[in-house]
Automatic annotation (TrEMBL):
Purine salvage pathway enzyme that catalyzes the transfer of the ribosyl-5-phosphate group from 5-phospho-alpha-D-ribose 1-diphosphate (PRPP) to the N9 position of the 6-oxopurines guanine and xanthine to form the corresponding ribonucleotides GMP (guanosine 5'-monophosphate) and XMP (xanthosine 5'-monophosphate), with the release of PPi. To a lesser extent, also acts on hypoxanthine. PANTHER family: XANTHINE PHOSPHORIBOSYLTRANSFERASE (PTHR39563), XANTHINE-GUANINE PHOSPHORIBOSYLTRANSFERASE (PTHR39563:SF1). It is a peripheral membrane protein. 5-phospho-alpha-D-ribose 1-diphosphate binds at residues 43-44, 94-102. Its EC number is 2.4.2.22. It comes from Azospirillum oleiclasticum. Pathway: Purine metabolism; GMP biosynthesis via salvage pathway; GMP from guanine: step 1/1; Purine metabolism; XMP biosynthesis via salvage pathway; XMP from xanthine: step 1/1. This is Xanthine-guanine phosphoribosyltransferase. Its cofactor is Mg(2+).
């Protein structure tokens, strides 16, 4: 039997929307710098970090590699790679905070970094310094790199099923 998850809503994000939101995040970050560089939290933080690096004209980019999910199932975080220093003057980027588990680990590694994400759910929100859009805790965000186009049921049919 498939494992159940706490996600009742789907929030699909297109490449265009992600690009626009990453640029919007840059506008919120520009006056908070200057930044020595960016630390991207892989893998989800890589695309937002690339867009933000382009907009802020930052070429020094490092990674912290952390994995906390198997698809929608949360588990023990695995840290595959850390980074030197305390993060002072660095921008730390991820795609989102959900439970805040990943953020808690990375903030401990880089306590002085400025942590920014595009999306935040309520449980993780207090751990983020700057973000763009909040979605509810029971929403799963579908990023464009994780999906492909497929048939979707007409609303009338979904409605009839209740
Ligand atoms: O706030 P949390 O509950 O920790 O969830 C947020 C984290 O989960 C996802 O990463 P994931 O572990 O799926 O790895 P990935 O970035 O390699 O896809 C996402 O990219 C965040 O890093
Ligand atoms: O693609 C994703 N969407 C989410 O909503 C989420 N929450 C934790 N990790 C996530 N990954
Ligand atoms: Mg991640």
């Amino acid at each position: 039997m498939a494992e159940s998850t706490p996600f009742n809503r789907a929030f699909p994000v297109s490449w265009e929307e992600l690009h626009r939101n990453a640029k919007a995040l840059t506008w919120r970050l520009i006056d908070k710098g200057p930044w020595k560089g960016i630390v991207a939290i892989t893998r989800g933080g890589l695309v937002p970090a690339a867009i933000i690096a382009r907009e802020l004209e930052i070429r020094l980019i490092d990674t912290v590699c952390v994995s906390t999910y198997d698809h929608q199932n949360v588990r023990e975080s695995v840290v595959l790679k850390g980074v030197e220093g305390d993060g002072d003057g660095w921008l730390l980027i991820d795609d989102l905070v959900d439970t805040g588990k990943t953020a808690m680990i990375v903030r401990k590694m880089l306590p002085k970094a400025h942590f920014a994400t595009i999306y935040a759910k309520p449980a993780g929100r207090p751990l983020v310094d700057t973000f763009i859009t909040e979605v509810s805790q029971d929403t799963w965000i579908y990023f464009p790199w994780d999906v492909e186009p497929q048939f979707s049921q007409p609303v009338a049919q979904l409605h009839r099923k209740g």
